[in-house]
Amino acid sequence: MAYDSANIFAKILRGEIPCDKVYEDEWALAFNDIAPVAPVHVLVIPKGAFVSIDDFTADASDAQIAGFYRAVGKVARDLGLAQPGYRTLNNTGSDGGQEVPHFHVHIFGGKTLGPMLVVE
Ligand code: AMP
C-alpha cells in the first residue's frame, strides 16, 4: 500500500492541523488521542512516511526504528506510566482495524486496563 501524504497524521506532522503535543524529537511525535479510551491515551508516530508496522520494519533505517521505539518508552516513562504499567497497541491494515494510514503506536494507561483483546 502506497503512503498517502494526505492522511491526517501527515498533516499533523507538517503542522497543517494542530495536535495536543506530548513529546517530539528527531524521530517521533507524540500527542493525545482525540477520542481517548483510557485516562491516558497517547499516539506516537514516526516522522517518516510509513503506512504501518509492515513497511516501517521493512524499510525504515535502524536509526529510525531505534529512535521511534525509544520515544515510545520515553513518553510512557515521562507520563509516569512505567509503574504501575501501561499498554501499547498497534493496529495494522483492515483486519487489524487501522483507521489512519500512518504508522502509530497507542499508549494506554492511568487505570487498570481490561482484558488484552476481545476478538468478536
Ligand atoms: P487506529 O485505529 O489505530 O488507526 O487509530 C487511529 C486513532 O487516531 C484513533 O484512536 C483516533 O481517535 C485517533 N485520531 C484520529 N484523528 C486524530 C487527530 N486529529 N488527533 C488525534 N487523534 C486522532
Give the structure's gist in a few sentences.
With 120 residues, the chain is α+β, with helices and mostly antiparallel strands. It has helices spanning 8-13, 53-59, 62-78, 93-96, and strands spanning 21-24, 28-32, 40-46, 87-89, 105-109. The chain has one domain: HIT family, subunit A, CATH 3.30.428.
What does this structure look like?
- The chain has 120 residues and is of the alpha+beta class.
- The protein has a single domain, classed as 2-Layer Sandwich (HIT family, subunit A), CATH 3.30.428.
- The chain has four helices and five strands, in the order αβββααβαβ.
- The protein has helices at residues 8-13, 53-59, 62-78, 93-96; strands spanning 21-24, 28-32, 40-46, 87-89, 105-109.
- The chain has a five-stranded antiparallel sheet, with helices on one face.
- A hairpin with a 3-residue loop joins strand 1 and strand 2.
- The longest helix has 17 residues, at 62-78.
- It is globular.
- The protein starts with 7 loop residues before the first helix and ends in an 11-residue tail after the last strand.
- The structure holds adenosine monophosphate.
